[in-house]
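Students often ask what a holo structure prediction actually looks like on paper. The answer is less mysterious than it sounds. You provide the chain, you provide the ligand, and the output is a string of discrete structure tokens encoding the 3D arrangement of the protein together with alpha-D-galactopyranose.
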Amino acid sequence: MPVSTATTAFLHAHPSRVAQELFHERTGGAASHVVYAPGRVNLIGEHTDYTGGFVLPMAIEPGLYLAARVRADRRVRVWSALRPEEPAEFAVDAPVPPGKPAWSNYVRGVIAGLQAAGASVPGFDAVVHATLPGGGGLSSSAALEVATATLGELLAGITLDPEQKALLCQKAEHEFAGTPCGIMDQFAVVFGKRGHLLLLDCQSRVRTLVPMRGDDVALLVINTMVRHELNDGGYRARRDDCLEAARLLGVRELRDATATSVDEARALLPERIFRRARHVTTENVRTLAAVEALRAGEWRQLGVLMGASHDSLRDDFNVSCAELDAIVAAARELGPERGVFGCRMTGGGFGGCCIALVQAARVREVEDALRASYLAATGIEPVIFATQPADGPAVLLQP
Ligand code: GLA
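The corresponding structure tokens follow.
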């Protein structure tokens, strides 16, 4: 695999160097380890993972770099390049508790999980350098968890089963960060594969890599620049609604209901619960249809499914916001005739990013048009970048 190794080295050379320089600035010494974990974007299958449904995410190259070195005293110090004045400090000679600053809980939770799995993680200094925006709905938290787990494996001299690694990271998010997320983000980051989307059955955890075919299409990520927070109640409330829907429908998980069974039970369900269940069951159908469209290279059909997903998230699941809707409206205005097959919000919602499926030859034009429309509608300058499915975590430097 010489080609992909060379590509990996090229992709990561600069940010890895930056992380090492930041490490030197903070500690006065040289880093002995650098690890990387990607961010992720979800093509379709939104708010279905915690109901056992289907999701179709991919890892993306912007991610997190962790430069580190072991310490002899069983203490951990971690600096975020974004807030260097506020390092996290804790001991690893006892079970690591949650603590401050808040972002450090992703690190703390993973180290605690490694300890619980029997790993002996030594003390270390580390600096986090991100090429991924935080709070942008691109899973910077899963990237930090998976990067920490990758570093922890190296320092403790163990190799976790990758599925166990993803689940350990999800547990850190639940128990240390207070976000009751599903398994999509951590699986997308751990199992990312260049050129492929990951179809994940969140009930059986069966994973299928689906190639992203064709040079004629590109994926654009459009950041609303409105920060989303998933531990402030809205996310948990959706999850509770889905549990309630499953209970009233008499199924173990909403995944086991169908759009038809939900329709038939409409009279039994409070209106809000009915709409939540309708979103999840129709989104599962759309996600499987999207896999077929992707396999066949039917971009218009894939775009239609993405549009329907957005409408359902906006109207039935109520997780969109004015800014996300403004981007989708601008993309629709362009449509396939002017290079946009489809566009939808991606991730948890309430801000964050949209993803658009665009004709490769018209990426620049589309980018300019979306930027101008969004700026006119909201007064906010969006950040837009083209992306493609990337590989999962990597060890970039070790002794
Ligand atoms: C967040 C969560 C995921 C998933 C998405 C919505 O990203 O972390 O588990 O629920 O929202 O699809």
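The longest strand covers residues 57-70.
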